[in-house]
Design goal:
Elements lengths: L25 H9 L4 H9 L5 H8 L3 H13 L3 E8 L2 E7 L1 H5 L1 H15 L44 E2 L2 E2 L3
Antiparallel strand pairs: 1-2, 3-4
Helix pairs in contact: 2-3
Length: 171
Amino acid sequence: MAATKDSEDPKSSQGSKGSKAPRPCSIADALALVGEKYSLLVLREVCLGNGRFDQLVRNIGAPRDILATRLRRLVEAGILTRRAYSERPQRFEYRPTPAGLELEPVLMTLMAWGDRHLRADDDRPMVIEHACGNELIPLVTCSACGENVRHEDLTAHPQTPGWTVTGPSAA
């Protein structure tokens, strides 16, 4: 990723005018990369096997120049790979890397949330089937105990010096 000014650097603790910068956060870091408009939709399509540029334009509806920018950034970040499938004219297809495939459960969870909260039960645009033959209903579970993750069972432990759960500590 490109270097940023101190006030925008997620690892910097001092912003402009001596104020504290936003909380250092891996969610913010991830969103800086995949939170741009169309980036997760690119990943959706590539994970569905639609990795050619014309397929992506058609299925996402993104302007070609913006889509090209998103693809370049996702390739540079190691989320997608680009492979030539035609020399004349030169054309490429995109595939998820192992890091890109690690984002697929995030996509499935977002889709399930959207189905539950933004659509009627009979208005879901897609159903994903698991290898077991049943509809996938993604759940987040603890890898140590196997229990479903619930908000009331979580405790945050900030690891960045100078930060507490409620914000920057008084200096």
